[in-house]
Amino acid sequence: MSLFAQKTASDTLQNIVVSASRKAQTMLQSPYSTQVWTDSSIRQKSARTSPELLMNMPGIFLQKTNQGGGSLFVRGLTGNQTLLMLDGIRFNNSTFRYGPNQYLNTIDPFILERVESVMGSGAVQYGSDALTGVVHLYSQKPQFSTKPLLQVGLQKRWASSDMENSYQGKIMYGQKNWSLLVSGSSKKFGDLIRGNQLGAQIPSGYQEGSSMFKFRHQATKSFEWEIGYQQMVQNNVPVYHKIVLENFAINEMEKQKYERVYWKGTAITKHAWAQKITGIVAYQSSLEKRRAQKNASPMLRVESDQVDTRSLSIDVESQWTKHWSSNSGIEMYHDGVGSSRSDINQSSQKIIPMRGLYPDQSKYEQSSVFTLHHIRLNQFQVELGLRWHQVKATLPDTTLGLSIVQNQALVYTAGISRLIGTNSSVYLSSSSGFRSPNLDDLGSLGIVDFRYEKPAYQLKPEYSLNLELGYKFENYRFRQQVSVFRTSLSNLITRVKTTTVIQGYPVYEKRNVEESYLAGGEWSGMYKINTRSALQGQLSYVFGQNLTQNEPMRRIPPLHGSIQYLIQTGRFTSQIEHVFAFSQERLSAGDKSDNRMNPLGTAGWGVVNLQTTYARKHWQLSLQLQNLGDVDYRMHGSGINGVGRSIWGQFLISM
């Protein structure tokens, strides 16, 4: 099979989802709102970045502060209130910021082969931060082969106006009992061109490089292990709206770097209580270096935050009876944080060392015990689970002294689905979620986005309670999924504006004071017109209300969706797509004070994209015409506008 082999749009009609219950089951069985995108769907989208890849997944909205960022809104929440997983390993760390951030963009979409989302659940399955759901990304794996198999793949991407110039190479070698995959990419992104002939958004371009290595070994019939390494480095990533709106000459991520190495082992036993045991040991490192300098000021601020995460997880899959199985285990994560700041006078070259954004040498320790039970009774599938979680944060603040913050949480998930015939099901679920305050909540001091923050060591966990009702249907021609939900949020950490101003920025204090709720629904569907064409689409809506402040919740996305028509003719596969968002005029006081937003609201928009791919046995060429109407638009809450009319190309070769 080719490294870049494509599948038809109908191949995803029968999908298996793993993330919803930590065990493989069909989407019809799962009593949660789930979505699965396989490698063919990922390649079909030809996304420039991982955030842009996921922007049309039901229940998800994308905010882009800058071209080098991109934060997912999962049913109205984003930043450290949503959980990202990568190959079964927690991607969130203890410095993930409240509100939009750029971390997802440090995962190269070239390496992904599968994405799963679980809406309204995930805290029992994966822990803290899953207030409204989990997005789980899976990177490519080397494949075993009965005969020695060598595959080499190359791809190049480019765009008009020099907006992209990217290369990637892959080598995979497989035998019966072991396989190896090595890949690397180099990318240069130019300044984004706005629609309506309004020109380049300067500065917004940057460069990045990534690499990945994986080795799998089937040691015995009952034991398999793999080791993997991944790295992404991005240099000189401008924060566009800071330069345009806040009088900065320089405001950039001088370096963003994500790195991880892991070992994963899977053992099959003859014992019912431990039919399958999976263990993962991982080390992750996240480095963020920032530079900022105001116009006409000699002072250059240089900041650096590095988080080193060590983790261990064990998952035991048991089969107690014919109809009752479970997944139980433990997870432990330990973050060590190094944070520094220096103000450099460019005239005198005097360096003034200062406290970093977080207390230097802070530690953040998480440990959990969980159990998930899967019960199948005739046409019913029942999911029940509990997780107990505890956190200890140690903050050796040079100004406020040593502070130790500890908290714990107990959360549950419960869902039931009933098959109706063989093609449809209805489900009802209730799940609680939580988010322990992290180091960004507890210890941040300084300028963050448009505000100045102070430490708050008294904070307690945030909680969510989700109720959801849904219907699923799929057969050889038609698939759809529809859900309605209500999520109650309590003990929310909010930034309260004070009357104090520091360095021209209003000072905010963090408190557990707010109660809010989210309500809405999602629909997604695909209709296979015939063997060569299909229609697919999705629509998502969420309403958020802050009960404490009696105002809308912050950054709530508007009604949004997309519709695609796909057709295959000979060697050509084409797609025309309409992506749209309605206006959003329900703004909180915080929205109105955010300089990325129009205080009157965000205008609605719609863009049309066209893509066609010509495929041969060992190569294929794709061309995308984006934003055919040259619409000038901005996604709600973003700090940069979307791309205007442009041409994007991709050439793949494999042998």
From TrEMBL:
Keywords: Cell outer membrane, Membrane, Receptor, Signal, TonB box, Transmembrane, Transmembrane beta strand, Transport
InterPro entries: Beta-barrel_TonB, Beta-barrel_TonB_sf, Plug_dom, Plug_dom_sf, TonB-dep_rcpt-like
Top-level taxonomic group: Bacteria
Membrane topology qualifier: Multi-pass membrane protein
Gene3D superfamilies: TonB-dependent receptor, beta-barrel domain, TonB-dependent receptor, plug domain
Transmembrane helix as UniProt keyword: no
PROSITE patterns for this protein: TONB_DEPENDENT_REC_3
TonB-dependent receptor plug domain segment(s): 29-134
TonB-dependent receptor-like beta-barrel domain span: 311-628
Compartments reported by the entry: Cell outer membrane
Pfam families for the chain: Plug, TonB_dep_Rec_b-barrel
Chief subcellular location: membrane
Family classification: Belongs to the TonB-dependent receptor family.
Record-given protein name: TonB-dependent receptor
